[in-house]
Design a protein that fits this description.
This protein is about 20% helix and about 20% strand. With about 350 residues, it is of the alpha+beta class.
């Protein structure tokens, strides 16, 4: 017997239309070979998008969607907006991006006010490997002598040891030898949750921050305190009326941070990509979830297609079984854990 030796399942395993067609067959709406109308596909995509969004929030489905992100701190600032909105180079609270976007270097000279050409040693990525030379249109931030960040778009002409800025160093400010310089290209989307966060110093040492609720954060005294960032509060709420311009908010305490702490590392949870009306659009789920998605979509739309009560019960049971199997087998970390008695709570 000969095997294919092919581990990549490409025959519609993550194709939204194939998932939809199978769900329609499960509810008895279709026979093999039938074709869905545009309205049927639109309704099914809405149901599928809604279902997997609900999974990602309510059930935590999507281990593969968790990303390590970086937030560059600006000493003295308490609130940071996490999401795609904002104007690169001009707004200092939207500099939040995947760790794979980070490109950093160290300044090798004192750069005075009005200087737009910054001398640096070498570009490295977050993993410490050789980084890429920033290009025109990237976003750059450099720590100034007063502890704040200066942000600018990158201008043409940067090379391995020079960063050229659109906006020069502000009047009355300067950089210091050893100041960190950060660049990135694309901001991260809005996260719907944060699992944990830790601070990272310019020397590379790291320590976990305490993730606290709103009540505990609001009760902290001296919101303008100076010191190493110790506590953070995450507010996932929307602050805009359109999905393209919304963000969640991170509150940091203390706010006046020493120059040795430039960034927070956030382990964030993101929604899967939206399924649009593009033909053969892939769902951002691993191959092994294909059957689970089809059966659960069938369960989601069964009432819309007036499936009989007995059949609905069968579909719901099968969908639940497949989802439980996948959450246990394919959506968990291989890690140890411990249990302890809860020592605080409501009186």
């Amino acid at each position: 017997m000969a095997y294919t030796n092919d581990k990549i399942w490409t025959a519609g395993s993550r194709d939204a239309d194939e998932i939809i067609y199978r769900a329609l067959r499960i509810v008895g709406e279709f026979d093999e070979g039938d074709t869905a109308t545009p309205d049927e596909l639109t309704s099914a995509r809405l149901a599928l998008n809604s279902m997997i969004r609900e999974w990602s929030v309510a059930d935590g489905v999507g281990l593969w969607l968790r990303k390590r992100c970086i937030l560059i701190l600006n000493s003295g600032k308490q609130r940071y907006s996490l999401g795609p909105a904002g104007t690169p180079g001009t707004v200092d609270d939207f500099h939040f991006f995947y760790d794979t976007e980070l490109n950093e270097a160290t300044g090798t000279a004192i750069e005075p006010a009005a200087e737009s050409s910054i001398a640096v040693d070498a570009w490295v990525d977050y993993a410490g490997n050789t980084g890429s030379i920033p290009v025109d249109g990237d976003v750059a931030g450099i720590r100034l002598d007063d502890g704040t960040m200066h942000w600018s778009l990158v201008a043409a002409g940067s090379d391995a040891t020079t960063l050229v800025l659109d906006d020069p160093i502000p009047a009355g400010k300067a950089t210091e030898v050893g100041s960190k310089v950060y660049t990135y290209t694309t901001r991260a989307p809005r996260p719907h949750g944060i699992l944990y966060t830790y601070r990272e110093s310019t020397s590379g040492s790291a320590a976990e921050n305490e993730l606290v609720g709103r009540r505990e954060f609001e009760r902290l005294s001296l919101k303008s305190s100076s010191g190493v960032p110790l506590k953070v509060h995450f507010d996932p709420g929307l602050d805009a009326t359109t999905s393209a311009n919304n963000y969640s908010t991170l509150h940091v305490w203390p706010v006046k941070n020493p120059k040795s702490y430039d960034k927070l590392i956030l382990i964030c949870e993101f929604h899967p990509d939206v399924i649009d009306d593009t033909a053969n659009e892939e769902i951002q789920f691993p191959d092994e979830w294909a059957s689970c998605l089809a059966w659960n979509l069938a369960d989601e739309i069964a009432a819309e297609y007036e499936v009989g009560p007995q059949t609905q019960v069968i579909i719901a049971a099968k969908a639940r079984e497949k989802k439980e199997n996948m959450m246990w087998a394919a959506d968990r970390e291989e890690a140890s854990f411990f249990m302890a008695l809860e020592t605080h709570g409501r009186a």
